Amino acid sequence: MIDQTSMTLKNELHDLIEWLSMFGKTKNGGVTRLLYDAAWQKAQYGLKQKMEDMDLETRFDDAGNLFGRVSGRGEDKKVILTGSHVDTVVDGGKYDGAYGVLASTMAASRLFHLYGPPKQTIEAVSLCEEEGSRFPLSFWGSGTITGKYKMESAAGLLDRSGISLAEAMQSAGFGKGNYPQPVRQDIACFLETHIEQGRTLELEQKTWAPVSAIVGQRRYTISLTGESNHAGTTPMNRRHDAVFAASLMIAHAIQEASHQSNGLVATAGRVEADPNVPNVISGKCRFSLDVRHHELKVMDHFCEQALAFFKETADNLGIRIHVSKWMDAAPVKLDPRLTQMNLKIADHAGIPFRKMISGAGHDSQIFGTYCPTALMFVPSHLGISHSPSEYTRLADLEVGVRMLMKVLYQLAY
Ligand SMILES: [Zn+2]
């Protein structure tokens, strides 16, 4: 026998994901939907109509965040906010962000149709921006709602074609005071459903994961200056080889990270040598170091130790070293009470689940420092994301929507 409600939910979800992915579809089958561009506008205005068709009361704020509301009948005027971001990276997938927006919209609408108005107001949100793909800033949507960003603070930022954020925003119909200011004080909690973008759930054959923390990230550029010289006539003991120094430093950092069994990850993803010629000793070398962990203490300890080794190595080789830390995002703990509640709900639902730490950044990390926040993952096939090959099985996407409905029901009804 076919479960009719499951078929309809699955069909509806499938159709909505395909529909939203048409806005900004690329020739590779991916999606490019950058903040305030034409595809973004079609998607966000299209979603407004879709939310209304699903009986949600809609409104925009002046940054272009879209809300679909099911008004509560209780005394508590605070809002349970649930959603994710509508923007994508260049040639990204159709699930990253979009799935969370659609899951939230469906969950809010279905609960309303099944049980009527809740005690506490639920709002689905399609956040205007998270990825940082067009302008050199990220989390513009959640940042403007939580007050991390003021509307005017980023107005002068330019995209690659020299268009300012303020111009782009106005050409999309926002930033002119036609809508309420984005910053809010009435949010009780934030719930985000998202694809994992890693392979843990798939490998462990789990379908759902409440996330307990989002890792902190630190990024450095290490610039080394030695002496460029002849590869044949300079004896080994007279060299100040910047590439050699960099290789010792990188090897040390990566090995140290590999020896820790606490989940810390370190990456030297970019190395640039100068003059970068086979028969010349490099006078200069620059490399990046990206370090992530969910506990500040662990990250601090690792970075201090690695940087001390870098300085010592540079001194020993007669090389000048300059360290620039250009990104420092603290780890964020998601609300333990909500995580605990979600684990219980999953246990009760009898689905295969586990608790996780997120190695990628999400809107939840902005909300997580502002209000009680829960982040929930469904699997990503092969862990692929930010690519047209991004894929999650419809059955897993369905579990995510059903679980979000259960969580929302417990909180709002
Ligand atoms: Zn995302």
Brief description of this entry?
By secondary structure, this protein is an alpha+beta fold. It contains 11 helices and 16 strands. Strands 1, 2, 3, 4, 5, 6, 14, 15 and 16 form a 9-stranded mixed β-sheet that branches. Strands 7, 9, 10, 12 and 13 form a 5-stranded antiparallel β-sheet that branches. It has a two-stranded antiparallel ribbon with strand order 8-11.
Separation of the first and last Cα atoms: 31 Å
Low-confidence stretches: none
Q: What are the distinct ligands in this entry?
A: zinc ion
Main sheet attributes: strand count, strand direction, barrel closure? 9 strands, mixed
What global shape is seen? elongated
> Roughly how many Å is the radius of gyration?
24 Å
Structural class: alpha+beta
Q: What portion of the residues fall into strands of 2 or more residues?
A: 15-25%
Q: Compute the number of strand runs.
A: 16
What portion of residues is helical? Answer: 25-40%
> What is the string of SSEs from the N terminus onward?
HHEEEHEHHEHEEEHEEEEHEEHEHEH
> Quick check: average pLDDT?
96
